[in-house]
Amino acid sequence: MKLRVSAVQYQLQTISSFEQFAAQAEHYIRTADEFGTEFVLFPEFFTTQLMSIGDGKGNALTIEDLPDFTEQYEQLFTSLAAKYNMHLIGGTHVIRREGKLYNTAHMFYPDGRIARQAKIHITPTEVQEWNMAPGDGLEVFDTDKGRIAMLTCYDIEFPEIVRMAKAKGADVIFCPSCTDDRHGFYRVRYTSHARAVENQIYVVLTGTVGNLPTVDFMRANYGQAAIITPNDVPFPPRGILAEGEINDDMIVTADLDLDLLYEVRERGSVTTWRDRRTDLYTDWA
């Protein structure tokens, strides 16, 4: 089984209305549709662009205001998923639940369903500056092209949570990310490769590019999309099916062949998933 995926290097720029945000989002989806894409990944925190709309007095909105756009955001992406018959991983959007803020990945199915996964590991900046709360569980999600998981940015740096996702049957990890400098970017990029090798899975990764001059903590972005494979003979030697140009406004597309994953797990040059030493360390069933 194969699935075609696209990852959006979303260009953050100041806007003045929700309609501008909607038009930009649909531009990327329409572009992916021209390539016959079935899954589109947007970056983490890309809806912070809505904060640049401001309060009408020249001030940017705050992170506390962002959940007020949740209904519009969900309606927009639900309608776009149906219109283009795609699975849209709508990056992350900040939602409010029981008085707490959660940085939450969303997947919009073509049939109108919405899957949500709150970010599990929260960075110090998210805690100290935006008072984000961590998600309290991991889910995997079935699609007509296989089982996937959504793990956001910092999450991919923790091998345990990705191993849990693989143990639950996920063959593809979609990782929306947002990093403001090279250090953060390469932490996420390098660990994405490690997780693909350890678990013999695909990782689809992307990040924000551009800047929001009026929005605190979103003034700088350093991003690049990549579609990452295990490092074994059936795959590219560097473990990269496709990658974008760093910090450019663009979209990258590739086909994920799930049969190749099953093949290398059974008789690859290495069989890392099968060879884990669960007699020495914890396993996740």
From TrEMBL:
<dbReference type="Pfam" id="PF00795">
    <property type="entry name" value="CN_hydrolase"/>
</dbReference>
<comment type="similarity">
    <text>Belongs to the carbon-nitrogen hydrolase superfamily. NIT1/NIT2 family.</text>
</comment>
<dbReference type="InterPro" id="IPR001110">
    <property type="entry name" value="UPF0012_CS"/>
</dbReference>
<dbReference type="InterPro" id="IPR003010">
    <property type="entry name" value="C-N_Hydrolase"/>
</dbReference>
<keyword id="KW-0378">Hydrolase</keyword>
<dbReference type="GO" id="GO:0016787">
    <property type="term" value="F:hydrolase activity"/>
</dbReference>
<protein>
    <submittedName>
        <fullName>Carbon-nitrogen hydrolase family protein</fullName>
    </submittedName>
</protein>
<dbReference type="InterPro" id="IPR036526">
    <property type="entry name" value="C-N_Hydrolase_sf"/>
</dbReference>
<feature type="domain" description="CN hydrolase">
    <location>
        <begin position="3"/>
        <end position="258"/>
    </location>
</feature>
